[in-house]
Amino acid sequence: MTDAFRSVIEELTEQHNKQLAAIRETYDRLHDLESTVKSSDGMISIVVGANGQVRSIDFNPRVYQKLSPSELSDAITTLIAQATGDVAERTKELIGPLIPDDLPLEEVFGTDVSLDAFLPQPVEAVE
Predict the structure, then answer these.
(1) A Pfam family matched by this chain, by name (predicted)?
(2) How far, in whole angstroms, is CA 58 from its chain's centroid?
(3) 86, 99, 98, 103: which is closest to 50 by C-alpha?
(4) pLDDT digits (tens, 9 = 90+) for 13-69
(5) Nearest in space to 78 (alpha carbons), one of 49, 50, 37, 33
């Protein structure tokens, strides 16, 4: 193998591994995403994590005196939608630079998708 060819291969390997590391770092940050929202009166607090899963719902004990069951249900639903929307927007911001424009986010970051299914393994340096 010529020195020029070896140099090109080493440079491409380094670029590949840097891009792979950046993608893995972004993917890890996605799993840490969460949004906490509170009702305007502070009676309800909801935390939603990555992929929209509800992590916690907390109530001020007085909420039961202030809201009827249907009002409480509506408030919870509204807050979950707000927090889920926030997480979705932040997900797009994180992965937008890494995803081709014509590839829908759902195909890459759905609920049962693994990052390893989309990425090759790191390349070993040529000796």
Answers:
(1) YbaB_DNA_bd
(2) 23
(3) 86
(4) 998 888 888 888 888 888 889 999 999 999 999 999 988 899 999 999 999 899 999
(5) 37
